[in-house]
Write a structure and sequence with these properties.
The chain is of the alpha/beta class. The protein is built from 14 helices and 15 strands. Helix 4 (139-149) links the parallel strand 4 and strand 5 (155-162).
């Protein structure tokens, strides 16, 4: 009998544990759901860096199919209207749903207040310009948006548009840039609409970026090692072609700027556009300078106030040198035909605010003379800038020939959306 009692007590303890363990697990599950509901903010990304898409689906993955939506609108006449909706898929059901719903409503209300506080911080000078920089994820675009967001006077708000969420995250985390938007200027130009709301100036810094074909680089290295005959340069490719980015994408931006009532467009292009045989056109067979030039013609014909800048070769030097302007690639004949990125950024900044920069298309490089910003005459610099001649070369005819040749050889690019002849008619200067 003495042996039976301990065994009976042991079994009772085990039975209690088998009942208590699931109960504790259930309680822990409820507590974790409530904690997550209180701590997770579905609009956090909208506060830090509002997306152009305006929708943030959040899935909490617990049980099945209950949904409610919280929408926040920004009905200010001074601040661009923004509608951020958090589509929250809560899958708990049962008695917990009203509790979790109330918690999310409270978090959304607080998020709206925080959003307004963040927006107030972004307004630097209420009487200044609202400026959008597209291509803000590039090296030059990043420097420009940093300068604009650091200005206390003359800039009400500076917004940056990047191509991907990865670029946006890099700007926010590494360079302390805020107020960014994500938009594909070629595939999804409608995403630009929010960024372009109530702006006065648009700065276009977008450009197709070539990448080296890995196989061609390996073949080149192999041939050099074994001294075999090979091409002197590696081959390149484009993820998005110059036609897509530098023509269609820039045309989309110009059209959006016109419909949004933008006062002034600053387009940063490139020198070399007068020479169809320029080596930059050969990279990836992209004809990048010709497509850029076609977009420049389209901007001039749009009726918008414009400034078109053709920088020389970009370097990462510190800069602070006086600029030298020219037209029609005449500066390419000089021994030095480059410009530091910071000097180009300064030219763009001054072009935004100097009235005499409007209606001009010019080339620019850096000189060897240090620039004293306290006394440098930017008004005089833009006054003496000329205007490039767009009659030569005949860009439309050249691109039409290229397209005809591609079709005959079966190598037409998949990016072509319509005939180049029709595009030429759109870009024809009145």
């Amino acid at each position: 009998m003495a042996m039976v009692a301990p065994v009976h007590r042991s079994l009772r303890r085990r039975g209690a544990c088998s009942v208590l363990a699931p109960a504790l697990l259930f309680v822990a599950l409820i507590v974790s759901v409530l904690v997550v509901s209180m701590q997770y903010n579905p609009l956090e990304k909208a506060i830090i860096s509002p997306r152009a898409s305006g929708s943030y689906p959040v899935s909490m993955g617990i049980v099945q199919n209950t949904r409610f939506t919280r929408s926040i609108s920004r009905p200010s006449s001074k601040i661009p209207k923004r509608s951020v909706s958090a589509n929250i898929h809560i899958q708990s059901g049962g008695i917990l749903l009203p509790v979790i719903r109330a918690l999310y409503e409270e978090r959304a209300r607080k998020s709206e207040e925080e959003y307004w506080e963040e927006r107030k911080k972004m307004i630097m000078d209420p009487d200044g310009k609202t400026i959008v920089v597209t291509g803000a994820g590039g090296r030059t675009g990043r420097l420009l948006i940093q300068q604009l967001q650091g200005m206390k006077k003359g800039v009400r708000e500076a917004r940056g548009v990047v191509h991907s969420f990865k670029s946006e995250r890099r700007l926010i985390d590494n360079y302390d840039v805020n107020n960014t938007f994500v938009a594909d200027i070629y595939a999804n130009p409608e995403n630009l609409e929010e960024a372009f709301g109530n702006i006065s100036t648009l700065v276009i810094l977008t450009s197709a970026m070539p990448k080296i074909k890995t196989r061609s680089l390996l073949r080149l290295m192999f041939s050099r090692i074994f001294r075999r005959k090979a091409s002197s340069r590696p081959q390149f490719r484009y993820k998005q072609t110059p036609e897509q980015v530098d023509w269609i994408g820039q045309k989309n931006q110009i059209d959006m700027a016109k419909s949004a009532g933008v006062e002034h467009v600053v387009l940063v292009s490139s020198m070399g556009g007068t020479d169809p045989s320029n080596m930059l056109n050969k990279i990836g067979d992209g004809n990048i300078l010709l497509w850029k030039r076609l977009a420049e013609r389209y901007l001039i014909a749009s009726g918008l106030n414009y400034t078109i800048i053709h920088p020389g070769g970009l370097t990462d030097k510190e800069g602070d040198f006086e600029p030298l302007s020219g037209v029609d690639d005449e500066l390419l004949q000089r021994p030095t035909r480059s410009i530091a990125r910071m000097d180009l950024v300064e030219v763009v900044l001054q072009a935004i605010f100097e009235p005499k920069a409007r209606g001009r298309s010019f080339d620019v490089i850096s000189t060897d003379t240090p620039r004293n910003d306290d006394v440098y005459d930017w008004d005089g610099f833009f006054a003496q800038c000329g205007h490039c001649d767009y009659q030569h070369p005949d860009v439309e005819a050249i691109l039409a020939r290229e397209k005809t040749l591609e079709k005959r050889t079966g190598g037409a690019t998949a990016a072509s959306s319509s005939s180049t002849t029709n595009r030429a008619k759109e870009a024809e200067v009145a």
